[in-house]
Design goal:
There is one protein chain. Helix content is about 55%, strand content about 15%. The protein is an alpha+beta fold and about 60 residues long. It has one domain: Winged helix-like DNA-binding domain superfamily/Winged helix DNA-binding domain (Arc Repressor Mutant, subunit A, Orthogonal Bundle). Helix 1 packs across helix 2 and helix 2 crosses helix 3. It is globular.
């Protein structure tokens, strides 16, 4: 499973918007890796921000 898949899986399981720090904690990935993957995911529209600094999957 790549970083993006891990992040999406954690977001789906959480059931609530998460910030990047919490995602890094739950996935075990380095925060810089999470930030880079999330930047790409924001651009391709796979995640959205319903609350400032918190993110969830776009298909929710």
């Amino acid at each position: 499973m790549n970083e993006k898949e891990m992040i999406l899986e954690v977001m789906r399981k959480a059931g609530e918007p998460l910030n990047a720090g919490k995602i890094a904690e739950l996935t075990g990935l380095d925060r810089k890796v999470v930030d880079k993957a999330m930047a790409a995911m924001k651009k391709d529209g796979s995640i959205v921000s319903p609350i400032r600094c918190k993110w969830e999957t776009a298909g929710k």
